[in-house]
């Protein structure tokens, strides 16, 4: 297929581009590099440095794209509580402009990076796709808004749309000649920050809150290896059906507290990893754990690297060689 990958200079988009290219697809990456890295773009992809709001320059009528995979966006839940306007613009206003371009160019399929953050504090665990959606942060609200836009688009204009609701992505793609992983600047995610501490780049790991209603008072998250996640996109491309908006949660169904993550990071790196309890971060739900039964049944998706040791181990391999 001829594919447009927005956000292909970012973490998940660059790993997925690699898998798409290796599967024989033709990939054009569109990324403004606002948070991504030019060197993360797959060398055998065509690269267009542009904002998604200008996607019509690439998605011209007759350009012949078979699908758009839309990873581009702003991703930090904490930041979205202090700069919400940035999130509404990037994740909704500009994404709607992208959708206009998709419609005008007659692109038949659209795969969207949605998130566990759409659910907010869950009423029942594990979280299924039909669970109540009540985001506790602006980031989740923007992603849910665009999910709704895709539902209307699919039904009104016959788009084959798929939203993949990732839980917490971790690890790196380590395979022969390719090592592709996570780089955010500034880094806000728990695992890469723990690795920065292990590498001596930060003094200590601050854990935001220890008074949540969880096993040890710290927040609980469901971590998913970026390689398993990327594979789900290829399956979603095959499953996408005209006129339908399919939605799949992608996680392992296992919750780890922030303290447990720190413990595994200690085990993997051999570092002491000092921890300090800090105030809660605004907008954090206490627990997010996925039910991915629907993805298993309908897509045939089976996560293979499902231990935290494997995820943090691959992230550490990437971090030491390419980031530290
Ligand atoms: N990392 C996670 O744990 C996680 C979890 C759930 C969902 N997601 C979603 O997955 C997607 C990818 O996440 P990631 O971790 O790879 O993020 P990332 O920050 O590494 O990559 C995002 C990319 O999008 C680009 N971008 C942002 N706004 C743009 C715009 N207006 N025009 C063009 N390019 C733009 C950035 O330059 C960057 O390369 C995001 O949509 C995110 O919301 C990520
Ligand atoms: O230095 C840190 C960084 C994070 N945390 C805590 O670690 C947990 C995980 O936080 P992350 O920032 O790593 O991830 P989030 O759960 O906030 O969000 C991530 O996963 C979500 C899906 O669950 C989103 O989609 C989002 O893009 C992605 O950033 C939270 O309790 C957070 O407060 C700390 O205690 N200290």
Summarize the helices and strands and which ones pair or pack.
Layout: E1 2-6, H1 11-22, E2 26-31, E3 46-49, E4 67-70, H2 77-82, H3 84-105, E5 109-115, H4 138-157, E6 160-166, E7 168-170, E8 173-175, E9 178-180, H5 190-198, E10 205-208, E11 220-221, E12 223-225, H6 226-239, E13 245-250, E14 256-257, H7 258-269, E15 275-278, E16 287-288, H8 293-299, H9 308-323
Helix pairs in contact: 1-6, 3-4, 5-7, 5-9, 7-9
The chain binds nicotinamide-adenine-dinucleotide and galactose-uridine-5'-diphosphate.
Residues 6-7, 9-13, 31-36, 51-52, 71-73, 75, 90, 94, 113, 115, 166, 168-169, 184 line the site of nicotinamide-adenine-dinucleotide.
Tally of DSSP β-strands: 16
Q: Supply the helix-strand structural class.
A: alpha/beta
Domain count, please report it.
2
The low-pLDDT segments are: none
Gyration radius (Cα, Å) is 19 Å
Q: Which molecules are bound in this entry?
A: nicotinamide-adenine-dinucleotide, galactose-uridine-5'-diphosphate
Estimated helix fraction: 25-40%
> Can you tell me the CATH class of the largest domain?
Alpha Beta
* Main β-sheet, spatial strand arrangement: 3-2-1-4-5-6-13
Oligomer: single chain
Helix-strand sequence: EHEEEHHEHEEEEHEEEHEEHEEHH
CATH third-level topology of the largest domain = Rossmann fold
Going by CATH, what is the homologous superfamily of the largest domain? NAD(P)-binding Rossmann-like Domain
The chain-level mean pLDDT equals: 97
**How would you sum up the major sheet?**
7 strands, parallel
Number of helices: 9
The CA-CA distance between the termini, in Å, is: 36 Å
Shape call: globular
Give the strand content: 15-25%
EC number: 5.1.3.2
Subunit structure: Homodimer.
Domain NAD-dependent epimerase/dehydratase: 4-251
Catalytic activity: UDP-alpha-D-glucose = UDP-alpha-D-galactose
């Amino acid at each position: 297929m001829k594919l447009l990958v927005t956000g292909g200079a970012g973490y998940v988009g660059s790993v997925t581009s690699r898998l798409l290219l290796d599967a024989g697809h033709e990939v054009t990456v569109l990324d403004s590099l606002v948070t991504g890295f030019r060197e993360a773009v797959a060398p055998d992809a065509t690269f267009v440095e542009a904002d998604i709001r200008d996607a019509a320059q690439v998605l011209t009528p007759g350009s012949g794209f078979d699908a758009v995979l839309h990873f581009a966006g702003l991703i930090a839940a904490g930041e979205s509580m202090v700069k919400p306007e940035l999130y509404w613009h990037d994740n909704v206003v500009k994404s709607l402009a992208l959708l206009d371009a998709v419609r005008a160019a007659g692109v038949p399929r659209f795969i969207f990076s949605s998130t566990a953050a759409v659910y907010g504090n869950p009423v029942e665990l594990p979280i299924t796709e039909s669970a109540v959606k009540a985001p506790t942060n602006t980031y989740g609200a923007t992603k849910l808004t665009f999910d709704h836009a895709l539902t209307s688009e699919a039904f009104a204009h016959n788009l084959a749309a798929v939203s993949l609701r990732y839980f917490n992505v971790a690890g790196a793609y380590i395979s022969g000649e390719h090592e592709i992983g996570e780089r955010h600047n500034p880094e806000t995610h728990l695992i890469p920050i723990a690795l920065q501490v292990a590498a001596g780049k930060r003094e200590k790991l601050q854990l935001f809150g220890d008074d949540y209603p969880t096993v040890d008072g710290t927040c609980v998250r469901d971590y998913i290896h970026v390689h398993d996640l990327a594979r789900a996109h290829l399956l979603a491309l095959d499953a996408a059906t005209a006129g339908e908006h399919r939605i799949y949660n992608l996680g392992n169904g296992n919750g780890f507290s922030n303290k447990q993550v720190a413990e595994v990071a200690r085990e993997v790196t051999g570092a002491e990893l000092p921890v300090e309890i800090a105030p809660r971060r605004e907008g954090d739900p206490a627990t997010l754990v996925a039910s991915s039964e629907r993805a298993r049944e309908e897509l045939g998706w089976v996560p293979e690297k499902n231990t935290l040791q494997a995820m943090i181990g691959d992230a550490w391999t990437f971090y030491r060689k390419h980031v530290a």
